Amino acid sequence: MGSFKEKLVRIFRDWMLVIGMAAGSGAYLIYHAIKPLHVAGPYLKYAAVHIQPILLFCMLFLTFCRIEPRQMRPHRWQGWLLLVQGGFFVAIALLLMLAPQLPLRMGAEAFMLCMICPTATACAVVTGKLGGDMAGVVTYTILINLLVAVLVPAMVPLIHPVEGLSFVTASAKIMAKVFPLLILPCLLAWLVRYLMPHVHAFLVKNTDIPFYIWACSLMLALLMSTRALVNSDEGLGVLLDIAIASAISCALQFWLGKIIGGAYGSKKDRITAGQALGQKNTVFGIWMGYTFLDPVVSVAGGFYSIWHNVFNSWQLYRARKENEK
Description:
By secondary structure, this protein is mainly α. The chain has 14 helices and no strands.
């Protein structure tokens, strides 16, 4: 009996991401199919929208507890990654400004959104599991969010002018989203590290807690992504364009990240840069899509969430098999 239980726990841990993805998508599809449940829809949406930031905050707080402040220093590969994300975003924005009737415009905007979307706050958890540098990913997460707060307000008005939305207003909106989920967990973790060392030691010992919190957050993210896809009014052709654009963007960024990180000769840098560039904060990307671009484009975040989590599941499975050998 004991061995069966251990085997079940191991299977559950090995396939945590797949289970979380299936549970999130399945939960919304069941809700959508059972009409009497729709009465509870507004309350369920309110709960999902407010629970996810709390989970992300806790996960990032626990991650910061494991990182010493002196470990958060810039690396050269981070500059190249910033150039990749910013360069693609600016180039496509200028192209759309000069050619507003560009064929497959929705796909181009979706690709642009996926390229500038910042690194996921959960990225450090996966990077740590894969053997990468958690501190390097967290440092890059802060840098790319600062770049997004500058580039998005500067470029988006060129292709989607919004009356009354100035550069300062748009930047403030982005920073208001970023600060509570990125800076506050960092400050709180450092306070606990220096003022409550016993509490800090206890939190650091439980290394798997952030991974399980991420699995719950992933379930909610896939639930909301499935909701966005099911409720989209666009035709199948537009959704297909957006799906393909997001898939190309996902594959390109993981590949470029690994190439750039690998150029510095370290396996750890290769893993870290690949995750930093490829794993995205898709919830934030969805918000940017319907706030600054065409609301339809926000669906790209839902598709990207599927692609990068499928790839992460495969990477984690492969890493476990290598460790067993």
